[in-house]
Design brief:
The complex is a heterodimer. Chain A is of the alpha/beta class. Chain A has 12 helices and 13 strands. In chain A, the strands form 3 sheets. In chain A, strands 2-8-7-6-5-3-4 form a 7-stranded mixed sheet, with helices on both faces. A 4-stranded antiparallel sheet of chain A has the order 9-10-13-12. In chain A, helix 1 runs antiparallel to helix 7, helix 2 packs parallel to helix 7 and helix 7 crosses helix 11. The termini of chain A are far apart. Chain B is of the alpha+beta class. Helices cover 41% and strands 21% of the residues of chain B. Classes of the chains: A alpha/beta, B alpha+beta. Bound molecules: pyridoxal-5'-phosphate.
Chain lengths: 404, 134
């Protein structure tokens, strides 16, 4: 049976897996101890649970459990990595390289560092959303301390060539960090094979709870250090003070374990549904896929329906929870900077919808989405002056629009 | 952000979608907004020459639900008004009628602009001077 509304916004957040909730429950109830309490069994039980979660997480990403620093989520992890590296390695240099399609948590942390004297290069990506390696190599400087490139993009799902990028960073003596919030748990990520020195990720994008995440910080070859951005009791090897969120951490651990176990099977199903959705929607006239088709996370499709505005379209599919790059959905009234930075016309950015599937998405939900999106696009085009002009063969670029 | 019932009603059952013959002297066309900004409205009126009354009004809009509702409502209000009265439709009337939130006020402004542009197009076609925005 089909339950409405249908959730297809899993890049924003994922539902909590019931198995994760079950693992967390004891730590929300009887086992409420502080993991830093060394003098009684309440504390020991909490510490043991945290240690176990650290192993589950480390296993998923091929790390050593000691390399996991718990945080409140990917935003904090990104901030800790960027600001912490800048502060720690100030003697070595002040140049950081990143992309202009990164998440705001990275971009705004970089902006903050610029005020403190950092020099930041924001590289552009190609039309497909991919970084051109030659551009990166050309931007490397002797004083480059950090290259920060996201693993998979949250809006278009594009996966960057992480191994090649980390190799270039290392060749020039810089550290490599990646915001892997959308990738960890969805595709195989291995910090050693991928050459990752620091990596941010978050539980709520992988069927875990909100408000908990981690920063992977490499301990060997090289030993990486970050200056704490939160001072206090010296938790997490002094890099992040604050009483550990034990139930959250247990949830993150369990979420990682399930992702590792089920990744292959989940991905197979999700890709089949995503591809069906995408193939059907791209049959609509003047519909375009945004970002690379091949180098892409298995659960994302970002599609522009030309001559239809994204928010208007979302209103037409009110029982589908999706998101749009349309300005009308953002506080800034600017369309998605990620889509704009692919070189897309603003008009196409305004016309985009992002579909994000999950392990809980059902075939019938995809059927519903296909049918209703097609219907809404058709209906809105019937009332779109731009569609009428397009059909009359008028080039919209030749019209003098009144900007407002 | 939830939409008001009136916005939903106009969005779901838009009034007066369509196209009038823009080459006709009785028809005034206003095309405002820009695709890059995510809103384009085309509003057209057909005026009874003898009485100066708007006989028919049609719209097509590329935009969010509030933009569609604002233009749909505008066509409803225009029908039966004289072009002089129509010039007095204020965007805040639209805001009030549709209960638009502050972030959607620009949709009502665009609708007012479209009304004025359509009337002026009609006026100029018929040898009358365009009326500047007040
Ligand atoms: C790529 C990326 N980085 C960072 C974040 C922020 O994560 P959190 O909500 O855990 O702070 C998100 C989620 O919105 C994301 O998609």
């Amino acid at each position: 049976m089909l339950n409405l509304p249908i959730y297809l916004d899993n890049n924003a957040t994922t539902p909590l897996d019931p198995r994760v909730l079950e693992a967390m429950m004891p730590y929300l109830t009887n086992n409420f101890g502080n993991a830093a309490s060394r003098s009684h069994s309440f504390g020991w039980a909490a510490e043991e649970a945290v240690d176990y979660a650290r192993e589950q997480i480390a296993n998923l990403i091929g790390a050593n459990p000691k390399e996991i620093i718990f945080t409140s989520g990917a935003t904090e992890s990104d901030n800790l990595a960027l600001k912490g590296v800048f502060e720690m390695y100030a003697q070595k240099g002040k140049h950081i390289i990143t992309l202009n399609t990164e998440h705001k948590a990275v971009l705004d942390a970089c902006k903050h560092l610029e005020k403190l004297g950092a020099e930041v290069t924001y590289l552009s990506v190609g039309e497909d959303g991919l970084l051109n390696l030659a551009d990166l190599e050309a931007a490397m400087r002797p004083d480059t301390i950090l290259v920060s490139v996201m693993y998979g993009n949250n809006e278009i799902g594009v996966i960057q060539p992480i191994r090649e990028i980390s190799a270039i960073a290392h060749k020039y003596g810089a550290l490599f960090m990646t915001d892997a919030t959308q990738a960890v748990g969805k595709i195989p990520v291995d910090v050693n094979a991928d050459g990752i020195d620091l990596m941010a990720f978050s539980a709520h994008k992988m069927y875990g709870p909100k408000g908990v995440g981690a920063l992977y910080v490499r301990r060997k070859n090289p030993r990486v250090k970050v200056t704490a951005q939160m001072d206090g009791g010296g938790h997490e090897r002094g890099m992040r003070s604050g009483t550990l969120n034990v139930p959250g951490i247990v949830g993150l651990g369990k979420a990682c374990e399930i992702c590792q176990q089920d990744m292959e099977a989940d991905t197979k199903r999700i890709v089949a549904m995503r591809d069906r959705l995408e193939t059907e929607l791209l049959k609509i006239e003047e519909a375009y896929l945004n970002g690379s088709k091949e180098h892409r996370l298995p659960h994302v499709a970002n599609i522009s329906f030309k001559y239809v505005e994204g928010e208007g379209l979302m209103m037409g599919v009110k029982d589908l929870a999706v998101s749009s790059g349309s300005a009308c959905t953002s506080a800034s009234l600017e369309p998605s900077y990620v889509l704009k930075n692919l070189g897309l016309d603003d008009e196409l950015a305004h016309s985009s919808l992002r579909f994000g599937l999950s392990r809980f998405t059902k075939d019938e939900e995809i059927d519903y989405a296909i049918e209703h999106v097609k219907e809404a696009v058709h209906k809105l085009r019937e009332m779109s002056p731009l569609w009428e002009m397009f059909k009359e063969g008028i080039d919209l670029k030749t019209i003098e629009w009144s900007e407002h | 952000m939830a939409y008001s019932e009136k916005v939903i009603d106009h969005y779901s059952n838009p009034r007066n979608i369509g196209t009038l013959d823009k080459s006709s002297n009785a028809v005034g066309t206003g095309l405002v907004g820009a695709p890059e900004c995510g809103d384009v409205m085309r509003l057209q009126i057909e005026v009874d020459d003898a009485t100066g009354t708007i006989r028919d009004a049609k719209f097509k809009t590329f935009g969010c639900g509030s933009a569609i509702a604002s233009s749909s409502l505008a066509t409803e209000w225009l029908k039966g008004k004289t072009i002089d009265d129509a010039m007095n439709i204020d965007n805040m009337d639209i805001v009030e009628e549709l209960a638009l939130p502050p972030v959607k006020i620009h949709c009502s402004v665009l609708a007012e602009d479209a009304i004025k542009a359509a009337i002026n197009d009609y006026r100029v076609k018929n040898g009358l001077p365009a009326i500047e925005k007040i």
